[in-house]
From TrEMBL:
Compartments where found: Cell inner membrane
Pfam assignment, any one: IspA
Domain of life: Bacteria
Spans through the membrane: 12-30, 42-63, 75-91, 103-123, 144-162, 168-186
Keywords assigned by UniProt, alphabetized: Cell inner membrane, Cell membrane, Membrane, Transmembrane, Transmembrane helix
Annotated function: Plays a role in cell envelope biogenesis, maintenance of cell envelope integrity and membrane homeostasis.
Membrane-protein topology: Multi-pass membrane protein
Similarity comment text for this entry: Belongs to the YciB family.
Official protein name in the record: Inner membrane-spanning protein YciB
GO CC, one annotated term: plasma membrane
PANTHER family per UniProt: INNER MEMBRANE-SPANNING PROTEIN YCIB, INTRACELLULAR SEPTATION PROTEIN A-RELATED
């Protein structure tokens, strides 16, 4: 696998989070509007989803061009956005796009769980360079992340099926991000106990 090239962290953050924030801003502006295209009426959510897909594709391609690397999660996310976002626009049904986070978290939670059944930490494969840990630390963290992802999948299903679209958009944009940040911040003691200090020549 090719090593990712270093780029300005601000540029990387803008390319990764920019499309999501743009989706939220566009939805706030267009949520109460409707659009007539080819004799079909689309609400603001569907229109914003249609715009979000090419924006995410372009930003992901730029990121790949600059770094020469995309993570497995970025690739899977892009594919699911194109497929389920495309279905939502094509069928004029927002349910497909709202199910996307559920599938993302179930896929990664399932993969981590499969690895645990084999006595392995697949999380270690993708994060070891960022957070070097002892084997036991990786196994504990993987179990926690697996359970966390399954929990997020269930939570997303509950939110989009029981709450308004506006509530779901806010949850997807901010709630999920805050939850992931809080989760990893809560692992501080584990990182301290099982962390391995890197030695540099």
């Amino acid at each position: 696998m090719a090593t990712a090239k270093k780029i300005n962290p601000m540029v990387k953050t803008a390319l990764e989070l920019g499309p999501v924030l743009a989706f939220f801003a566009a939805y706030v502006l267009l949520k109460d509007k409707t659009f007539e295209v080819g004799g079909q009426t689309y609400d603001g959510f569907i229109a914003v989803t249609a715009g979000f897909i090419p924006v995410l594709v372009i930003c992901t391609l730029i990121l790949w061009r600059l770094t020469g690397h995309l993570s497995k999660m970025q690739i899977v996310t892009l594919v699911l956005v194109v497929v389920f976002g495309g279905l939502s626009v094509w069928l004029n049904d927002d349910r497909f796009f709202k199910m996307k986070p559920t599938l993302i978290y179930l896929i990664f939670g399932g993969l981590l769980g499969f690895g645990l059944l084999r006595g392995q930490s697949y999380l270690r494969v993708v994060m070891e360079e960022v957070m070097p840990l002892e084997h036991e630390g990786w196994m504990i963290l993987t179990r926690r992340v697996c359970a966390f992802f399954i929990g997020l999948a269930i939570l997303n299903e509950v939110i989009w099926r029981t709450q308004s679209t506006e509530t779901w958009v806010s949850f997807k944009t901010f709630g999920l991000t805050i939850a992931i940040f809080a989760f990893f911040m809560a692992q501080g003691k584990l990182f301290q106990k099982y962390g391995i200090e890197k030695t540099e020549d």
